[in-house]
Amino acid sequence: MKNTGIAMKIAALAGLAAMLAYLGYCVMLYLAQDGMVFPGRAADPARVQEIKRYFPRLEPFTVTAGDGTALTGYYLPRLKDGKPLPAVLYFAGNLEEQTGFFLWSPNELRFMSIAGVDYRGYGGSAGKPSETAVKADALTVYDALAQKLGPGGRIVVMGRSLGSGVAAYVAANRPVAGVILVTPYDSLLAVGREGHPYAPVRLLMKHPFDTTADAAKVTAPTLFLVAGDDTLIKPARAEHLAAVWPGPKTYEVIPHATHNNIIDNPRYWTAIREFLKACRPAGESAQ
Question: What residues are paired with 73 via a beta bridge?
């Protein structure tokens, strides 16, 4: 009997330790998620100067958010007959700031104006990011760009990874000429559940980014660019989103591409250019 009692105490202690470890794991996930979703990234001053040398017409794009937070980015106008050409408005992944996009995109998209503003806590933007703030800021950025383009200006929103959900939100709430979603997801909640299958992710998640909630409102043509070997946001997440996306869509999987190197694949920019040219109104020619 004595041995039985000792065994029961050991089992109880082991169970308590396991429960405390699990609770600690959940607390860690809750406290760490801001840094996981929005790790922030400063702009490299040398890269900024490099981009300015490559593209002398590059302008600072500064926007004041609804709460007064100063957000900064870049705008590269391309003109035809003195008027700005349609623009690609880029929303970055969570490990990017805008100079990464501006280093390459202007040469790849010579027939488009290019614009992008960094999230709060990224690049030169002030403030602390959250899903609510980032989405509200994105609409403010869209409105500021629409003013720059003037009446009849056309905007294609493009988002990569985290930014795909932001781009979808803008497309659901503003008129856009097209949508480009790179390594997209149906929700970050679903991504989190895959990464942490034993945690109560729904209860812990502060930034669920449910893109499916916006999908029903988007009628603009959309390009899905999916990395075939993506292990961070698995292709199934994009498949689920595309299944509920009601508007016209092109769904392309780039074989053997991963979440981080998809941009290096020769098909990446080719697919984007083909899509953008298909979005042009009849009679409008590429430059």
Answer: 61, 117
Side-chain-side CA neighbours of 174 within 13 Å: the count stands at 26
At residue 195, does pLDDT exceed 90? no
- Pairing of β 70-76 and β 79-80: unpaired
User: Which SS3 state, helix, strand or coil, does residue 67 take?
Assistant: coil
* Cα–Cα distance list, 258 to 32, 162, 226 (Å): 25, 15, 9
Q: Which long-range contacts (CB under 8 A, 24 or more apart) does 51-58 make?
A: 51/99, 51/102, 51/103, 54/103, 54/106, 55/102, 55/106, 58/102
Helix (H) or strand (E) holding 204: helix 201-204
Q: Which of 82, 187, 66, 36 is nearest to 136 (CA)?
A: 66
pLDDT, tens only, 246-266: 989 999 999 999 999 999 999
Residues 6+ away with beta carbon under 8 Å from 49: none
Sign for the pseudo-dihedral over CA of 28, 30, 33, 34: negative
Q: What is the enclosing helix (H) or strand (E) of 158?
A: strand 155-160
Task: Report pTM.
Answer: 0.91
Give the Cα separation of 184 and 181 in Å (integer): 6
pLDDT, tens digit (0-9, with 9 covering 90-100), for 10-37: 766 666 666 666 666 556 667 666 777 8
